[in-house]
């Protein structure tokens, strides 16, 4: 099967842009069950749904985690850091304030979204700092929104799970168009 990446002409107006980041994780799927995988894809999308991948990464989570929420939260934090970084680069190139390009993240774990939006602390004390950093980014307006989407249509799912079909991701990469459910 031939794989292509299409880079369509996006809107020339930066006000029409947004950055979407899809993050995913898989708990204890490496090193005989002691390591976990994280993956994320950062996209630049215009109001017409045309999109270009800016960055993607899949690899081992830097520390051993004990729960799915921890793996997903660390993947989200890493994906958001990438999104903020690429937003700053784009803003500098086109001469606008970075805050003018919204960032929206998609995760397939509702517990992470609940933890980020709640005042109740998670049980894992080490994870509290990571959740607090994500929450602070939302409060400060550095990140505009974190949304849930089902794993079966999540574009980063195939980066972390062996056997997960990547057809949706390949279709977006080849067509240069983001599915409507993410617009």
Overview of this protein structure:
- The protein has 183 residues and is an alpha/beta fold.
- The chain has one domain (15-182): Ribonuclease H-like superfamily/Ribonuclease H (Nucleotidyltransferase, domain 5, 2-Layer Sandwich), CATH 3.30.420.
- It is built from 4 helices and 5 strands, in the order βββαβααβα.
- The chain has a 5-stranded mixed beta sheet with strand order 3-2-1-4-5, with helices on one face.
- Strand 1 (18-30) and strand 2 form a beta hairpin.
- The radius of gyration is 16 Å and the shape is globular.
- The two termini are 28 Å apart.
Helix content: 25-40%
Q: What is the average per-residue confidence, as pLDDT, rounded to a whole number?
A: 92
| Helix count, DSSP H or I runs of 4 or more residues | 4
Helices and strands, in order, run as EEEHEHHEH
Main sheet characteristics: 5 strands, mixed
- The rounded Rg comes to 16 Å
- The figure for the number of domains is 1
Structural class: alpha/beta
Report a brief summary of the structure.
The chain has 183 residues and is an alpha/beta fold. It has one domain (15-182): Ribonuclease H-like superfamily/Ribonuclease H (Nucleotidyltransferase, domain 5, 2-Layer Sandwich), CATH 3.30.420.10. Helix content is 32%, strand content 23%.
Itemize the secondary structure elements and their pairings:
Blueprint: E1 18-30, E2 35-45, E3 51-60, H1 68-94, E4 103-107, H2 110-116, H3 125-140, E5 145-148, H4 167-175
Parallel strand pairs: 1-4, 4-5
Antiparallel strand pairs: 1-2, 2-3
Helix pairs in contact: 1-3
């Amino acid at each position: 099967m031939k794989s292509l990446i299409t880079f369509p002409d996006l809107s020339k107006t930066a006000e029409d842009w947004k950055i979407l980041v899809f993050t995913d994780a898989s708990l204890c799927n490496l090193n005989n069950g002691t390591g976990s995988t994280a993956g994320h894809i950062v996209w630049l999308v215009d109001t017409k749904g045309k999109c270009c991948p800016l960055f993607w990464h899949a690899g081992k989570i830097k520390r051993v985690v004990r729960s799915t929420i921890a793996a997903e939260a660390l993947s989200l934090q890493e994906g958001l850091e990438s999104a903020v970084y690429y937003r700053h680069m784009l803003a500098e190139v086109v001469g606008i304030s970075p805050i003018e390009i919204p960032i929206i993240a998609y995760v397939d774990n509702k517990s992470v979204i609940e933890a980020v939006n709640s005042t109740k602390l998670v049980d894992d004390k080490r994870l509290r700092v990571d959740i607090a950093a994500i929450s602070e980014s939302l409060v400060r307006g550095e990140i505009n929104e974190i949304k849930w989407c089902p794993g079966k249509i999540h574009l980063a799912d195939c980066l972390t799970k062996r056997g997960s079909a990547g057809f949706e991701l390949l279709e977006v990469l080849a067509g240069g168009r983001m599915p409507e459910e993410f617009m």
